Amino acid sequence: MLAAGPLFAKGLIIRRPFVVRLLRRTGTEGKGVRLLARLRRKYGDGPLRLRLPLREQAVILSPRHLRRILAGTPEPFAAASREKQAALAHFQPEGVLVSEGGERAERRRFNEAVLESACPVHSLAPRLAARIEAETAPLRAAEQLGWPAFKRAWFRMVRQAIFGPSARDDERLTDTLEKLRADANWAFLKPRRERLRDRFLASVRERLAEAPPDSLGGLARARATAGSAPEHQIAHWLFAFDAAAIAGFRTLAMLALHPQAAARARESDEFRRACLLETLRLWPTTPAVLRETRAETQWEASALPAGTGLLIHLPFFHRDGSRIPYADRFVPDIWLDGRAEAWPFVPFSTGPAGCPARNLVLFLASAWIAALIRGRMPALPAGAGLDPAGLPATFDHFALRLKLAPLETSRAAGEEPARPASVDPSFQRSKTWLTNSRS
Ligand code: HEM
314, 29 in Cβ contact below 8 A? Predict the structure, then answer.
């Protein structure tokens, strides 16, 4: 199928750079969105049932249905779809996303407790902000900033955030995870490397045992109960921090393209978070939210039998130009003036299985960007192929090189206070970030 094909081809678990490049060149992802828009006009709100040989599958086309499904997870709409179980078994078979019943409930509680989902500012924020300052310093000093250096520095910060300073340079751990994630892209189609997976999970357990109290790992030890399977949850965190890095790097590119937004982002944490969310609207890092019905469900058009796979294709909801006037433009203010709430823009999903790290990710990525743009202006090279009036459906961040040019000397020395990355008070006052269940 034209809409879903690119999602699987570019890799649901880890992006394949050559496919991303190809999709960018061919514009296939944009065509997928337009196809779904045409199908909705032709067949109505759906769910649109597909004739597939091995299973019942339906595509969600209406905002109302999207909300119903995300609010009704895990019963009757289970997050642990067969595809996800097959993919995540490669590296986190006991992760919350593929758990069910009492196990899911316990692992969800554990994730929320350690990631402090309900808190706009994590209790470790001051410690994390200090690590961000230290790890962004070499990037600020470099002439050019490409994806590999950005990602390497980000993961130095992430490993310390989870396991403490001794894990800073443990690239072997995260490299092993990348290998397992590459297998996970193939889900059922690739045999599992169980020995490698077990070695990886054992390394996570060892690191966890040594994690200091002022790290996420330390909190995980303190907040785990029987059944939390902390090493599997941490495997998910390490995997998902890649998406946060991608979002951060792309947001820098958007700030380079929109200097006025960059100026506002330099001043306000709340606005930086809006920029991150807007970048994630334009290019959701989890483009397919999959569910599976655990009982027969009734819809206006028909009933769907138990076991039906449901596809929520986020680019369709986020970029349908026939219904969203600013679909292909960067408009961070929609996250501040209520427009994003009125329409289901859900890059972090929402409801009982929505991303429990939403607030933590926004805090970390916002502080990271603040440190990079303090006294500097991100700039794109000529020919970056990003037109602010019509942003592409696919963003090839692998190939992108940014510059972080110092603002003019007078401005850098005078008006730009050398404030360390931290939580600015405007953000603490705002309730926009308090919850992930607004839409
Ligand atoms: C830009 C960064 C991120 C985005 C856009 C994002 C988005 C999402 C989305 C859309 C889901 C729902 C997936 C589904 O239902 O199939 C999800 C689930 C989840 N995310 Fe994130 N995520 C990000 C980063 C993170 C990070 C860094 C962590 C951990 C530190 C994390 C932890 C989780 C967990 C544990 C779940 C499963 C929740 C459940 O099943 O109850 N995410 N995320």
Answer: no
Q: What is the DSSP letter of 100?
A: -
Q: Where are the beta strands (DSSP E) in 52-126?
A: 57-59, 77-78
Centre of ligand 1 to C-alpha 415, Å, is 38
Alpha helix stretches (DSSP H) within 116-146 = 125-141
The pTM (predicted TM-score) of the whole model is: 0.91
Angle at 310 between CA 335 and CA 283, to 5 degrees: 35
Question: Considering only CA atoms, which residue is closest to atom 37 of ligand 1?
Answer: 97
Angle, vertex CA 144, rays to CA 14 and CA 396, nearest 5: 30
The residue among 312, 306, 264, 296 whose CA lies nearest residue 65 is: 312
* C-beta separation of 335 from 431 below 8 A: no
Question: The dihedral of CA 105, 211, 359, 314: what is its sign?
Answer: negative
- pLDDT, tens digit (0-9, with 9 covering 90-100), for 22-35: 556 666 788 889 98
| Dist CA 147 CA 144 (whole Å) | 10
- We find that the CATH architecture of domain 5-429 is Orthogonal Bundle (1.10)
Residue 78 CA to its chain's centroid (Å) = 20
d(CA 11, CA 8): 5
CA of 353, closest atom in ligand 1 = 41
70-110 per-position pLDDT tens digit: 999 999 999 998 888 887 877 888 999 999 999 999 999 99
Which residue among 81, 355, 360 is best mutated to probe the pocket of ligand 1, counting the most ligand atoms within 8 A of its Cβ? Answer: 355
Q: Which atom of ligand 1 is nearest to the CA of 99?
A: 40
Residues within 6 Å of ligand 1 by CB: 79, 96-97, 108, 111, 115, 236-237, 240-241, 243-244, 247, 280, 285-286, 289-290, 347-349, 353, 355-357, 361
| Contacting residues for 312 by C-beta, under 8 A, at least 6 apart | 60, 66, 69, 70, 288, 289, 290, 291
Say which residues have a Cβ less than 8 Å from residue 382's Cβ, sequence separation at least 6.
none
- Strands 401-406 and 288-293, how do they pair? unpaired
